[in-house]
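Chapter review: from sequence to fold.
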Amino acid sequence: MAEAVFHPPRRKRRVFESYEAPFPVDVGGKDFRLCQAEIINNNVIVRNPEDIEQLYNKGYFGKGILSRSRPVFSISDPLLVAKWRGVNTDMPIITSQKYQRRVQWAQSVLQEQGLDSCSVTKILESYTKPLGLPFCRGAGAEHTGDSCSRGGPGNAELCRRSAGREGAQSPEGHSQRPDQGGDAALDPGSGSRDQEQGDSREMAEGSCHRDPPVLCGCEGKQSPEQRAWEGMYSRECAPEYVLVEEEEEGSSCPEDGSTHAQENLVKKEVLVCRKNPFRIFEYLQLSLEEAFFLVYALGCLSIYYGEEPLSIVKLWEVFSEVKPDFKTTYMAYHYFRGKGWVPKVGLKYGTDLLLYRKGPPFYHASYSVIAELVDDNFEGPLRRPLSWMSLSGLNRTTANASKELMLCYLIRPSDMTAEEMSTPECMKRIKVQELIVSRWVSSRERSEQDEF
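The token string follows.
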């Protein structure tokens, strides 16, 4: 067997952020923060913005459900942001058509909840009317007048963050259970099934929140799950303000010196501040391996299912039921995390894990990993029995993406029982051996020998 040749990680050309820390814990323990997550439809979701920032910035755990990787989703139209660059505000800027589409979504939600058309119309008219001085309760500051542009960028950012998410409230003031959502990209406070059955265009628009557009107060009854998030909901009750680009009434006028007034009309556009009737939320979705590592290895995450947080043994059992090969993949994840790599899900390349140095923003993935649990004799039921054809195709796919294929064998003692495997303490007796698969090219081998 030839000795593996380790190639240096391939650094990305454009890096727009700085490296903070490998793990979301401090060495001294002074600023230790216990983050919270919950299990929704077999997915581990983090909703608190401060927890999201902590987990992703330090160690790059999880993925934004509406973003490619970092949770930075915004409803702002990039073209409008560039057009209104001089507007001194950080509130989202959207088109009038997009805003009307959100009003229609909110109208359908209210109608599904049994409200008559007259009540729905009055509610939406009252909620979406133009605002002169929107008050941001979360930041405790007021924003501007006609164009909502005189508030400082710092206050606007506080307003956007505090109003960017809200608690789940029904028109009667009662909260909905967060475990009723149909998809991880939906707001966990959502109880509507129509979003799951909607067309692909709606899902591409961001898998929107199905809460009603009114009643932002927190006086309704709260379920035990929501009481655990009471501190977060106190900031999420405020409405989200958006700037809508609209045509100014009576602004169409002919250009100077134009003889055809009907053909050369100049439309003046203004930004009008309104409340967003249909909210889009971005949460951090953790893989089962990442979530268990944060709970078991670092102790900086508490995962709730219902009223109480789940214990480590219970999580090991639940995750093994959700994902039959969870024990194997987590052992590999734990091993590589301990070696300083940043493992991410390798589903895109047909493997279990992708290994990054420092994190995805800085380097391309170096290895695609397939994990297998075997005994001392390298025997056992393989998760992915590879034929020569499938192995060759997988290796070619990995090589075309400038990565290397690695087989990670987790060797357990032959006398290890199923009872020992029922707890994560079994990892103390597991040994790991890596095998890098490379394609042997005879012509290249001969040319190298001729050089010597």
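Two observations follow directly from the output. Confidence is low (pLDDT under 50) at residues 134-235. The first strand starts at residue 35 and ends at 40.
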